[in-house]
Amino acid sequence: xxxxxxxxxxxxxxxxxxxxxxxxxxxxxxxxxxxxxxxxxxxxxxxxxxxxxxxxxxxxxxxxxxxxxxxxxxxxxxxxxxxxxxxxxxxxxxxxxxxxxxxxxxxxxxxxxxxxxxxxxxxxxxxxxxxxxxxxxxxxxxxxxxxxxxxxxxxxxxxxxxxxxxxxxxxxxxxxxxxxxxxxxxxxxxxxxxxxxxxxxxxxxxxxxxxxxxxxxxxxxxxxxxxxxxxxxxxxxxxxxxxxxxxxxxxxxxxxxxxxxxxxxxxxxxxxxxxxxxxxxxxxxxxxxxxxxxxxxxxxxxxxxxxxxxxxxxxxxxxxxxxxxxxxxxxxxxxxxxxxxxxxxxxxxxxxxxxxxxxxxxxxxxxxxxxxxxxxxxxxxxxxxxxxxxxxxxxxxxx
Length: 399
Known about the structure:
Layout: E1 9-12, H1 18-28, E2 32-37, E3 52-53, E4 56-57, H2 58-63, E5 67-71, H3 77-88, E6 92-95, H4 101-104, H5 109-115, E7 120-125, H6 140-146, H7 149-152, H8 167-191, E8 196-200, H9 201-206, H10 212-219, E9 236-240, E10 246-250, H11 254-263, H12 278-283, H13 285-296, H14 301-310, E11 315-317, H15 321-326, H16 328-332, E12 336-341, E13 345-350, H17 375-382, H18 387-395
Parallel strand pairs: 1-2, 1-6, 2-5, 6-7, 7-8
Antiparallel strand pairs: 3-4, 9-10, 10-11, 12-13
Protein backbone atom coordinates (compact mmCIF):
# COMPACT_ATOMS: atom_id res chain seq x y z
CA UNK A 1 0.00 0.00 0.00
CA UNK A 2 1.32 3.42 -0.93
CA UNK A 3 0.03 6.95 -0.84
CA UNK A 4 -0.59 9.69 1.72
CA UNK A 5 -3.52 7.80 3.28
CA UNK A 6 -1.60 4.58 3.90
CA UNK A 7 -2.57 3.31 7.36
CA UNK A 8 -6.12 4.68 7.16
CA UNK A 9 -8.84 2.03 7.33
CA UNK A 10 -12.27 2.74 5.79
CA UNK A 11 -15.40 0.60 5.97
CA UNK A 12 -17.45 1.28 2.85
CA UNK A 13 -21.12 0.42 3.11
CA UNK A 14 -23.74 1.25 0.49
CA UNK A 15 -23.78 0.78 -3.24
CA UNK A 16 -23.85 2.33 -6.70
CA UNK A 17 -22.16 5.67 -7.11
CA UNK A 18 -21.82 8.40 -4.49
CA UNK A 19 -20.52 6.46 -1.48
CA UNK A 20 -18.41 3.98 -3.48
CA UNK A 21 -16.88 6.80 -5.54
CA UNK A 22 -15.79 8.53 -2.34
CA UNK A 23 -14.30 5.21 -1.21
CA UNK A 24 -12.51 4.85 -4.53
CA UNK A 25 -10.84 8.25 -4.10
CA UNK A 26 -9.63 7.33 -0.62
CA UNK A 27 -8.40 3.93 -1.86
CA UNK A 28 -6.52 5.52 -4.77
CA UNK A 29 -4.41 7.40 -2.24
CA UNK A 30 -3.53 4.41 -0.10
CA UNK A 31 -6.39 3.96 2.36
CA UNK A 32 -7.37 0.39 3.12
CA UNK A 33 -10.96 0.47 1.93
CA UNK A 34 -13.03 -2.55 2.89
CA UNK A 35 -16.18 -2.62 0.79
CA UNK A 36 -19.03 -4.52 2.42
CA UNK A 37 -21.71 -6.07 0.21
CA UNK A 38 -24.89 -7.91 1.14
CA UNK A 39 -24.29 -11.61 0.32
CA UNK A 40 -27.82 -11.90 -1.11
CA UNK A 41 -27.93 -8.54 -2.90
CA UNK A 42 -24.47 -7.47 -4.13
CA UNK A 43 -23.87 -3.93 -5.38
CA UNK A 44 -26.09 -3.32 -8.46
CA UNK A 45 -23.20 -1.42 -10.04
CA UNK A 46 -21.79 -4.81 -10.99
CA UNK A 47 -24.33 -4.77 -13.83
CA UNK A 48 -24.35 -1.05 -14.72
CA UNK A 49 -22.76 0.56 -17.76
CA UNK A 50 -23.41 0.96 -21.45
CA UNK A 51 -21.09 -1.82 -22.66
CA UNK A 52 -19.82 -5.22 -21.56
CA UNK A 53 -16.39 -6.82 -21.88
CA UNK A 54 -16.28 -10.58 -21.58
CA UNK A 55 -19.75 -10.36 -20.07
CA UNK A 56 -18.84 -7.91 -17.31
CA UNK A 57 -19.53 -4.22 -16.68
CA UNK A 58 -16.25 -2.32 -16.66
CA UNK A 59 -17.56 0.50 -14.48
CA UNK A 60 -17.47 -1.94 -11.56
CA UNK A 61 -13.76 -2.60 -12.08
CA UNK A 62 -13.03 1.14 -11.93
CA UNK A 63 -15.32 2.03 -9.03
CA UNK A 64 -14.05 -0.85 -6.88
CA UNK A 65 -10.36 -0.63 -7.71
CA UNK A 66 -7.90 -0.81 -4.84
CA UNK A 67 -10.64 -2.05 -2.47
CA UNK A 68 -10.96 -5.23 -0.47
CA UNK A 69 -14.35 -6.88 -0.91
CA UNK A 70 -16.19 -8.72 1.83
CA UNK A 71 -19.79 -9.86 2.23
CA UNK A 72 -21.78 -9.29 5.40
CA UNK A 73 -25.50 -9.42 6.11
CA UNK A 74 -25.92 -6.33 8.27
CA UNK A 75 -29.59 -7.16 8.86
CA UNK A 76 -28.58 -10.17 10.94
CA UNK A 77 -27.36 -10.05 14.50
CA UNK A 78 -24.15 -11.87 13.64
CA UNK A 79 -23.46 -9.55 10.73
CA UNK A 80 -24.09 -6.50 12.92
CA UNK A 81 -21.69 -7.81 15.57
CA UNK A 82 -18.98 -8.45 13.00
CA UNK A 83 -19.38 -4.94 11.62
CA UNK A 84 -18.97 -3.53 15.13
CA UNK A 85 -15.80 -5.56 15.57
CA UNK A 86 -14.43 -4.19 12.30
CA UNK A 87 -15.35 -0.66 13.38
CA UNK A 88 -13.19 -0.99 16.48
CA UNK A 89 -10.01 -0.82 14.38
CA UNK A 90 -11.24 1.47 11.60
CA UNK A 91 -10.95 5.20 11.06
CA UNK A 92 -13.92 5.88 8.81
CA UNK A 93 -17.30 4.34 8.12
CA UNK A 94 -18.76 5.52 4.81
CA UNK A 95 -22.39 4.83 3.85
CA UNK A 96 -24.95 6.09 1.35
CA UNK A 97 -28.17 4.50 2.56
CA UNK A 98 -31.43 6.32 3.06
CA UNK A 99 -31.30 8.04 6.49
CA UNK A 100 -32.41 5.77 9.30
CA UNK A 101 -31.15 2.54 7.71
CA UNK A 102 -28.15 2.10 10.01
CA UNK A 103 -30.34 2.88 12.99
CA UNK A 104 -32.83 0.15 12.01
CA UNK A 105 -29.97 -2.33 11.88
CA UNK A 106 -28.75 -1.38 15.36
CA UNK A 107 -25.72 0.46 13.94
CA UNK A 108 -26.52 4.04 14.89
CA UNK A 109 -23.55 6.38 15.31
CA UNK A 110 -23.90 6.22 19.09
CA UNK A 111 -23.60 2.43 18.97
CA UNK A 112 -20.57 2.62 16.69
CA UNK A 113 -18.94 5.20 18.94
CA UNK A 114 -19.35 2.91 21.95
CA UNK A 115 -16.82 0.68 20.23
CA UNK A 116 -14.63 3.42 18.71
CA UNK A 117 -15.11 7.07 19.66
CA UNK A 118 -12.57 8.11 17.07
CA UNK A 119 -14.61 6.75 14.15
CA UNK A 120 -15.55 9.32 11.49
CA UNK A 121 -18.96 8.45 10.05
CA UNK A 122 -19.62 9.83 6.55
CA UNK A 123 -23.28 9.66 5.54
CA UNK A 124 -24.25 10.45 1.94
CA UNK A 125 -27.94 10.71 1.08
CA UNK A 126 -30.30 12.47 -1.28
CA UNK A 127 -31.47 15.21 1.10
CA UNK A 128 -29.25 14.92 4.18
CA UNK A 129 -29.74 13.46 7.65
CA UNK A 130 -32.16 16.16 8.83
CA UNK A 131 -34.98 18.25 7.41
CA UNK A 132 -38.42 17.44 6.08
CA UNK A 133 -37.14 15.48 3.07
CA UNK A 134 -34.58 13.34 4.90
CA UNK A 135 -36.48 10.07 4.30
CA UNK A 136 -37.02 10.64 0.58
CA UNK A 137 -34.92 8.55 -1.82
CA UNK A 138 -32.59 10.61 -3.94
CA UNK A 139 -30.67 9.88 -7.11
CA UNK A 140 -28.27 12.18 -8.91
CA UNK A 141 -30.83 13.19 -11.53
CA UNK A 142 -33.30 14.29 -8.86
CA UNK A 143 -30.60 16.15 -6.92
CA UNK A 144 -29.44 17.97 -10.05
CA UNK A 145 -33.02 19.10 -10.64
CA UNK A 146 -33.84 20.20 -7.10
CA UNK A 147 -30.34 21.62 -6.51
CA UNK A 148 -30.77 24.07 -9.39
CA UNK A 149 -28.27 22.69 -11.91
CA UNK A 150 -30.71 21.24 -14.43
CA UNK A 151 -32.58 24.54 -14.85
CA UNK A 152 -29.34 26.19 -15.97
CA UNK A 153 -28.49 23.58 -18.60
CA UNK A 154 -29.47 23.53 -22.24
CA UNK A 155 -31.53 26.03 -24.22
CA UNK A 156 -34.49 28.15 -23.07
CA UNK A 157 -36.95 26.55 -25.49
CA UNK A 158 -36.05 22.90 -24.73
CA UNK A 159 -36.33 20.53 -21.75
CA UNK A 160 -33.32 20.79 -19.40
CA UNK A 161 -30.90 18.00 -20.44
CA UNK A 162 -28.95 15.71 -18.16
CA UNK A 163 -25.16 16.06 -18.26
CA UNK A 164 -24.52 12.51 -19.51
CA UNK A 165 -22.91 11.35 -16.27
CA UNK A 166 -24.17 11.09 -12.69
CA UNK A 167 -22.92 14.55 -11.81
CA UNK A 168 -24.82 14.87 -8.53
CA UNK A 169 -23.37 11.62 -7.21
CA UNK A 170 -19.83 12.54 -8.18
CA UNK A 171 -20.09 16.00 -6.61
CA UNK A 172 -21.42 14.50 -3.39
CA UNK A 173 -18.60 11.93 -3.34
CA UNK A 174 -15.91 14.58 -3.67
CA UNK A 175 -17.53 16.71 -0.97
CA UNK A 176 -17.72 13.62 1.25
CA UNK A 177 -13.98 13.09 0.84
CA UNK A 178 -13.35 16.72 1.78
CA UNK A 179 -15.50 16.30 4.87
CA UNK A 180 -13.81 13.04 5.85
CA UNK A 181 -10.35 14.59 5.64
CA UNK A 182 -11.44 17.64 7.67
CA UNK A 183 -13.02 15.42 10.32
CA UNK A 184 -9.89 13.26 10.52
CA UNK A 185 -7.70 16.35 10.86
CA UNK A 186 -9.89 17.63 13.69
CA UNK A 187 -9.80 14.22 15.38
CA UNK A 188 -6.04 13.81 15.06
CA UNK A 189 -5.00 17.36 15.99
CA UNK A 190 -7.70 18.61 18.36
CA UNK A 191 -10.41 16.38 19.74
CA UNK A 192 -9.42 12.72 19.46
CA UNK A 193 -13.03 11.98 18.59
CA UNK A 194 -14.91 11.29 15.40
CA UNK A 195 -17.99 13.06 14.09
CA UNK A 196 -20.66 12.71 11.41
CA UNK A 197 -20.00 14.03 7.91
CA UNK A 198 -23.50 14.71 6.55
CA UNK A 199 -23.52 15.05 2.74
CA UNK A 200 -26.64 15.74 0.68
CA UNK A 201 -26.70 15.17 -3.07
CA UNK A 202 -29.06 18.14 -3.42
CA UNK A 203 -26.74 20.42 -1.45
CA UNK A 204 -23.71 19.22 -3.40
CA UNK A 205 -25.42 20.43 -6.59
CA UNK A 206 -26.72 23.60 -4.94
CA UNK A 207 -23.21 24.51 -3.78
CA UNK A 208 -22.17 25.15 -7.41
CA UNK A 209 -24.64 27.97 -8.04
CA UNK A 210 -21.95 30.66 -7.74
CA UNK A 211 -23.48 34.16 -7.69
CA UNK A 212 -26.97 33.00 -8.56
CA UNK A 213 -28.11 32.82 -4.94
CA UNK A 214 -27.15 36.35 -3.78
CA UNK A 215 -28.31 37.78 -7.10
CA UNK A 216 -31.80 36.38 -6.54
CA UNK A 217 -31.88 37.38 -2.89
CA UNK A 218 -30.91 40.98 -3.67
CA UNK A 219 -32.68 41.59 -6.98
CA UNK A 220 -35.14 38.76 -7.59
CA UNK A 221 -33.24 37.72 -10.71
CA UNK A 222 -33.77 34.13 -11.86
CA UNK A 223 -31.00 32.96 -14.13
CA UNK A 224 -32.08 30.46 -16.75
CA UNK A 225 -30.51 28.31 -19.44
CA UNK A 226 -28.50 30.17 -22.05
CA UNK A 227 -27.44 27.45 -24.46
CA UNK A 228 -23.78 27.48 -25.44
CA UNK A 229 -22.94 30.94 -24.09
CA UNK A 230 -23.20 32.96 -20.90
CA UNK A 231 -24.78 36.42 -21.17
CA UNK A 232 -22.22 39.18 -20.88
CA UNK A 233 -19.19 37.00 -21.70
CA UNK A 234 -18.10 37.42 -25.30
CA UNK A 235 -16.58 35.97 -27.30
CA UNK A 236 -16.86 32.80 -25.25
CA UNK A 237 -18.83 30.18 -27.12
CA UNK A 238 -18.87 27.17 -29.43
CA UNK A 239 -17.94 27.79 -33.06
CA UNK A 240 -18.23 25.34 -35.97
CA UNK A 241 -15.14 24.73 -38.10
CA UNK A 242 -14.99 24.09 -41.85
CA UNK A 243 -14.63 20.34 -41.22
CA UNK A 244 -17.71 20.28 -39.00
CA UNK A 245 -16.06 20.21 -35.58
CA UNK A 246 -17.00 22.31 -32.60
CA UNK A 247 -14.30 24.46 -31.01
CA UNK A 248 -14.67 26.40 -27.77
CA UNK A 249 -13.01 29.80 -27.79
CA UNK A 250 -12.86 31.76 -24.53
CA UNK A 251 -11.57 35.25 -25.35
CA UNK A 252 -13.80 37.55 -23.33
CA UNK A 253 -10.94 39.13 -21.35
CA UNK A 254 -9.70 42.33 -23.00
CA UNK A 255 -6.06 41.27 -23.42
CA UNK A 256 -7.05 37.86 -24.77
CA UNK A 257 -9.57 39.39 -27.15
CA UNK A 258 -6.86 41.68 -28.50
CA UNK A 259 -4.74 38.65 -29.33
CA UNK A 260 -7.69 36.93 -30.99
CA UNK A 261 -8.50 40.02 -33.06
CA UNK A 262 -4.90 40.22 -34.18
CA UNK A 263 -4.86 36.52 -35.17
CA UNK A 264 -8.10 37.05 -37.12
CA UNK A 265 -6.46 39.98 -38.95
CA UNK A 266 -9.10 42.21 -37.42
CA UNK A 267 -7.14 44.55 -35.11
CA UNK A 268 -9.78 47.18 -35.87
CA UNK A 269 -12.17 45.34 -33.55
CA UNK A 270 -10.24 46.50 -30.51
CA UNK A 271 -10.91 50.12 -31.51
CA UNK A 272 -14.58 49.64 -32.28
CA UNK A 273 -16.65 51.00 -29.37
CA UNK A 274 -19.01 48.02 -29.72
CA UNK A 275 -16.19 45.54 -29.03
CA UNK A 276 -13.33 47.44 -27.38
CA UNK A 277 -14.14 46.41 -23.79
CA UNK A 278 -15.45 43.41 -21.94
CA UNK A 279 -18.66 45.24 -21.10
CA UNK A 280 -19.18 46.43 -24.67
CA UNK A 281 -18.67 42.96 -26.11
CA UNK A 282 -21.15 41.58 -23.60
CA UNK A 283 -23.72 44.11 -24.74
CA UNK A 284 -23.13 43.17 -28.39
CA UNK A 285 -22.64 39.46 -27.86
CA UNK A 286 -24.51 38.23 -30.92
CA UNK A 287 -22.54 40.48 -33.26
CA UNK A 288 -19.08 39.54 -31.98
CA UNK A 289 -20.00 35.84 -31.89
CA UNK A 290 -21.08 36.07 -35.53
CA UNK A 291 -17.77 37.69 -36.50
CA UNK A 292 -15.76 34.97 -34.75
CA UNK A 293 -17.96 32.25 -36.26
CA UNK A 294 -17.42 33.60 -39.77
CA UNK A 295 -13.66 33.42 -39.23
CA UNK A 296 -13.68 29.92 -37.71
CA UNK A 297 -15.91 28.64 -40.54
CA UNK A 298 -13.09 29.25 -43.02
CA UNK A 299 -10.67 26.96 -41.14
CA UNK A 300 -10.47 23.28 -40.42
CA UNK A 301 -10.19 22.31 -36.76
CA UNK A 302 -6.43 21.68 -36.72
CA UNK A 303 -5.67 24.98 -38.43
CA UNK A 304 -7.99 26.91 -36.15
CA UNK A 305 -6.45 25.40 -33.02
CA UNK A 306 -2.93 26.01 -34.30
CA UNK A 307 -3.66 29.69 -34.88
CA UNK A 308 -5.37 30.12 -31.55
CA UNK A 309 -2.66 28.31 -29.62
CA UNK A 310 0.06 30.37 -31.26
CA UNK A 311 -1.72 33.50 -30.03
CA UNK A 312 -2.27 32.11 -26.51
CA UNK A 313 -6.04 32.25 -26.92
CA UNK A 314 -7.76 29.62 -24.74
CA UNK A 315 -9.47 27.15 -27.06
CA UNK A 316 -10.25 23.48 -27.40
CA UNK A 317 -12.27 21.02 -29.41
CA UNK A 318 -15.34 19.37 -27.95
CA UNK A 319 -13.96 15.87 -27.43
CA UNK A 320 -15.60 12.50 -27.63
CA UNK A 321 -13.99 9.72 -25.63
CA UNK A 322 -12.35 8.59 -28.89
CA UNK A 323 -10.74 12.03 -29.19
CA UNK A 324 -9.49 11.72 -25.62
CA UNK A 325 -7.80 8.41 -26.43
CA UNK A 326 -6.20 9.97 -29.54
CA UNK A 327 -4.76 12.99 -27.69
CA UNK A 328 -1.28 12.30 -26.20
CA UNK A 329 -2.10 14.73 -23.39
CA UNK A 330 -4.05 12.07 -21.53
CA UNK A 331 -1.33 9.43 -21.68
CA UNK A 332 1.38 11.96 -20.85
CA UNK A 333 -0.56 12.93 -17.73
CA UNK A 334 -1.31 9.27 -16.87
CA UNK A 335 -5.03 9.81 -17.22
CA UNK A 336 -5.46 6.67 -19.33
CA UNK A 337 -4.08 3.83 -17.22
CA UNK A 338 -3.82 0.29 -18.56
CA UNK A 339 -4.48 -2.14 -15.72
CA UNK A 340 -4.18 -5.93 -15.84
CA UNK A 341 -7.25 -7.77 -14.62
CA UNK A 342 -6.94 -11.54 -13.99
CA UNK A 343 -10.36 -12.18 -15.54
CA UNK A 344 -10.78 -9.38 -18.08
CA UNK A 345 -7.24 -8.93 -19.37
CA UNK A 346 -5.98 -5.40 -19.89
CA UNK A 347 -8.52 -2.67 -19.23
CA UNK A 348 -7.97 1.07 -19.38
CA UNK A 349 -9.09 3.15 -16.42
CA UNK A 350 -9.29 6.87 -15.70
CA UNK A 351 -6.17 8.04 -13.93
CA UNK A 352 -5.83 9.23 -10.34
CA UNK A 353 -6.45 12.88 -9.53
CA UNK A 354 -5.01 15.05 -8.13
CA UNK A 355 -1.36 14.41 -8.98
CA UNK A 356 0.82 14.61 -5.86
CA UNK A 357 4.56 14.98 -6.32
CA UNK A 358 5.75 13.19 -3.15
CA UNK A 359 2.94 10.76 -2.32
CA UNK A 360 1.05 10.06 -5.54
CA UNK A 361 -2.00 7.86 -5.69
CA UNK A 362 -2.01 4.71 -7.79
CA UNK A 363 -4.19 1.95 -9.19
CA UNK A 364 -2.84 -1.15 -7.51
CA UNK A 365 -5.51 -3.62 -8.62
CA UNK A 366 -8.90 -3.55 -10.34
CA UNK A 367 -12.11 -4.25 -8.49
CA UNK A 368 -12.38 -8.04 -8.01
CA UNK A 369 -15.32 -9.61 -9.80
CA UNK A 370 -16.22 -12.09 -7.05
CA UNK A 371 -18.23 -10.80 -4.09
CA UNK A 372 -16.46 -11.57 -0.81
CA UNK A 373 -13.05 -11.96 -2.43
CA UNK A 374 -11.33 -10.81 0.77
CA UNK A 375 -13.59 -12.43 3.38
CA UNK A 376 -10.89 -14.75 4.68
CA UNK A 377 -8.21 -12.06 4.75
CA UNK A 378 -10.24 -9.28 6.35
CA UNK A 379 -12.48 -11.25 8.71
CA UNK A 380 -9.72 -13.66 9.60
CA UNK A 381 -7.30 -10.85 10.47
CA UNK A 382 -9.55 -8.15 11.90
CA UNK A 383 -12.39 -10.22 13.37
CA UNK A 384 -10.35 -13.29 14.34
CA UNK A 385 -12.50 -15.81 12.45
CA UNK A 386 -10.90 -19.14 11.61
CA UNK A 387 -11.75 -21.04 8.38
CA UNK A 388 -14.38 -23.17 10.11
CA UNK A 389 -16.17 -20.12 11.49
CA UNK A 390 -16.06 -18.46 8.08
CA UNK A 391 -17.55 -21.57 6.49
CA UNK A 392 -20.39 -21.75 9.03
CA UNK A 393 -21.25 -18.06 8.52
CA UNK A 394 -21.18 -18.51 4.74
CA UNK A 395 -23.55 -21.46 4.95
CA UNK A 396 -26.04 -19.32 6.94
CA UNK A 397 -25.67 -16.48 4.38
CA UNK A 398 -24.24 -14.12 6.99
CA UNK A 399 -21.28 -13.88 4.61
